[in-house]
DNA sequence: ATGCAGATAATCT
DNA sequence: GATTATCTGCATG
């Protein structure tokens, strides 16, 4: 796969102005950029709006936490979960709808060194994370891209892009990991995000199935991935966590 | 390769 | 007080 052949032209906001389950498969092969790191998306999940998708954060309506999902399309909804992880979504449909696509996994196509550093445990000593695992899973992907609480609501549409486009190629830069590609994305303002055209996945290679780790709407096949891609995360069904022994109910019999 | 337990806190009931 | 759109390390086949 030639890294330099991915289109760096940004996707317009209208791309996200559709139902999330239609946007999701079209997102495969696209490139999400934040600062120096870019990820080619290989696995995503669609989440619907209030009252229509029991697995969605917006199912019971608008709250302070999910407010961004009700905002305009093309913005990042970044949420905190399990007491330690951030996950990122791209908001779909016009203001007021409350749906989004969770970005679950991908391949690092720029800023590899930075991604490795971010995914290395404190101190830098110890185990080394294989490159294919750098963004293999939604929380890992968020770490690799440097997405945190403060990036919730960040616009991922590169509005000022036309001025930065290469007149010959129509692209805004080149992908690559080496020093010669240090300015691979000329003109993208520091600290901002964008979704680039990349190379859309061949429809024949797209698979779909139930979403990972959800406890409701288990049959809705709104997880989409590129078949056979090594960066796709392993599927895990939802496992109800057993209550800690201190919190077991009064009627419970101690084992053995 | 697969499976389980623990971590850890915001959000919701 | 329970649940969670998860990850990691350590266990076992």
Task: Please summarize what this structure is.
With 256 residues, this protein is mainly beta. It has three helices and nine strands; from the N terminus they run βαβββββααβββ.
Describe the protein in words:
The protein has 256 residues and is mostly beta strands. It has one domain (3-247): Roll (3-methyladenine DNA Glycosylase, Chain A), CATH 3.10.300. It contains 3 helices and 9 strands, in the order βαβββββααβββ. Strands 1, 2, 3, 4, 5, 6, 7, 8 and 9 form a 9-stranded antiparallel β-sheet that branches. The protein is globular, with a radius of gyration of 19 Å. Mean pLDDT is 86; it is low at 179-184 and 245-256. The structure holds a DNA duplex (13 and 13 nucleotides).
Layout of SSEs?
Blueprint (H helix, E strand, L loop, with lengths): L6 E4 L9 H8 L3 E4 L2 E11 L28 E6 L3 E8 L6 E12 L1 H7 L19 H8 L47 E6 L7 E4 L13 E4 L30
Antiparallel strand pairs: 1-7, 2-3, 2-7, 3-6, 3-9, 4-5, 5-6, 8-9
This protein binds a DNA duplex (13 and 13 nucleotides) through strand 4, strand 5 and helix 3.
Name the beta content range. 15-25%
Q: N-to-C SSE series?
A: EHEEEEEHHEEE
Task: Count the beta strands.
Answer: 9
Low-confidence stretches: 179-184, 245-256
**CATH topology grouping:** 3-methyladenine DNA Glycosylase, Chain A
The level of helicity is under 10%
Q: Whole-number radius of gyration?
A: 19 Å
Task: Find the CATH superfamily.
Answer: Methylpurine-DNA glycosylase (MPG)
Largest sheet: 9 strands, antiparallel
Distance between the termini: 57 Å
CATH class: Alpha Beta
Shape: globular
Write down the domain tally.
1
Number of helices: 3
CATH architecture: Roll
């Amino acid at each position: 796969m030639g890294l330099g052949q991915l289109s760096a032209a940004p996707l317009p906001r209208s791309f996200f102005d559709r139902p999330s389950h239609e946007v999701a498969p079209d997102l495969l092969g696209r490139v999400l950029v934040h600062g120096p790191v870019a990820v080619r998306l290989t696995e995503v999940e669609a989440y619907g709006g209030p009252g229509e998708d029991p697995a969605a954060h917006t199912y019971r309506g608008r709250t302070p936490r999910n407010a961004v999902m009700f905002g305009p399309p093309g913005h990042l909804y970044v949420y905190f979960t399990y007491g330690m992880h951030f996950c990122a979504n791209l908001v779909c449909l016009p203001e007021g709808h409350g749906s989004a696509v969770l970005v679950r996994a991908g391949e690092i196509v720029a800023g590899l060194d930075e991604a490795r550093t971010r995914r290395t445990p404190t101190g830098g000593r110890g185990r080394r994370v294989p490159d294919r695992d750098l963004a293999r899973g939604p929380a890992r992907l968020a770490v690799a891209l440097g997405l945190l609480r403060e990036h919730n609501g960040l616009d991922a549409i590169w509005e000022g892009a036309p001025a930065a486009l290469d007149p010959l190629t129509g692209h805004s830069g080149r992908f690559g990991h080496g020093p010669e590609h240090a300015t691979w994305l000329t003109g993208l303002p520091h600290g901002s995000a964008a979704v680039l055209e990349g190379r859309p996945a061949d429809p024949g290679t797209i698979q779909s199935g139930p979403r990972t780790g959800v406890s409701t709407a288990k049959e809705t096949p709104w997880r989409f991935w590129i078949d056979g891609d090594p960066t796709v995360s392993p599927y895990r069904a939802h496992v109800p966590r057993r209550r800690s022994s201190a919190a077991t109910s009064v009627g419970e019999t101690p084992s053995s």
